[in-house]
């Protein structure tokens, strides 16, 4: 890769500023790379290249089939380098290699192809009969220059869900990866360079928060697509407001798993573990509030504790590892702080805790931790912890379970576990979230829209709606054709 350069408008360039980004391995706490950091001058250059490409270049004006072909070439290049991509992600964010191969790399690769399939059937241009007899043409046109800003936890998945639909819509994209995980984005830039896109269509600018803020506020940007914390999302929305700049926000979550009284404890424990503790719990749609019937609370708590205690914690490069380190020391300290808070608030610590896992002496690790006998007004039940910490909350009946699930500032995901499908779907309809799962965590189906409500943001990614977010809809009305004989009669009158 080319860590000393920035990928601006399809060309590798020397940065205009001296600062560098140190990439630290969470497992060893040792530096593994140093990459160039974008400054204001680099952002200006990327926006200028993007504006030229969008305002006068071929990309927005190509037939959609040609853009689809270009993205399929990118997908082919991606497929050939999946192993390298997974190894890089494991090294820079600590994701277990098995999870990196499956979710961090194979899933984004699959979504590239799925988006192309969606774009082939997408109504970029359609004709409707008007109410007054005139034909109405509906065009879905690219929104323009897109600033795509992604966090470190699922970097390739989050990049692909922004970059690919934007490109298919005809937009041009400036991507800013998180400073914790720039290496995977630079590898993707290499693949983009091999895919024969026109000049200016894609730029990749690693940088800190100030670079992201400068990009968001730039007058040459037409839309911002942001994934990150709710606090940061509010700042992005405020920065876009003065210019009425289009913005979509995929933010935090504190999702609830509602366990109904007919559910099987072992099935619930397995489903919650998969949906909550992957990537060391550093996923926005994790099920972190486990709502269980009070009469069976011990059964479900014990099953979940046994499942969590059996998790293999350690070296993320080992294929047997299920839980790796957190991304940074500050994240480790933050999660340990929440564990201490949970104990102080009176929740019962069932398994885990703030100490290092057994057999692990170095790295930013936190034991998978389970609290029970908690209340929904505790901080561990209300705030996004973003680590391997789950909280069991008892409820008296289904009505109270729904009320607890909805009593949250967030609304990203959730689930219900039950033997009765119709009952489960009824609960799903009553929970105010953007996504929901029945007898599983929410699956990231590329054909289904993903996004949240309330403090979890607005806008949708994936599915046809994922392309919609990068288009403007234009209506063109065409005067009805007048019959010549009728027109002549009118003139004679």
Automatic annotation (TrEMBL):
Lineage: superkingdom: Bacteria
One Gene Ontology term of the molecular function aspect: aldehyde dehydrogenase (NAD+) activity
Coiled coil (residue ranges): none
Catalysed transformations (reactions): an aldehyde + NAD(+) + H2O = a carboxylate + NADH + 2 H(+)
Enzyme active site: 250
Family (UniProt): Belongs to the aldehyde dehydrogenase family.
InterPro entries listed in its UniProt record: Ald_DH/histidinol_DH (IPR016161), Ald_DH_C (IPR016163), Ald_DH_CS_CYS (IPR016160), Ald_DH_CS_GLU (IPR029510), Ald_DH_N (IPR016162), Aldehyde_DH_dom (IPR015590)
Protein name (database record): aldehyde dehydrogenase (NAD(+))
EC number(s) stated in the UniProt entry for this protein: 1.2.1.3
Top EC class for this record: oxidoreductase
Keywords: Oxidoreductase
Aldehyde dehydrogenase domain location: 12-476
A Pfam family hit: Aldedh
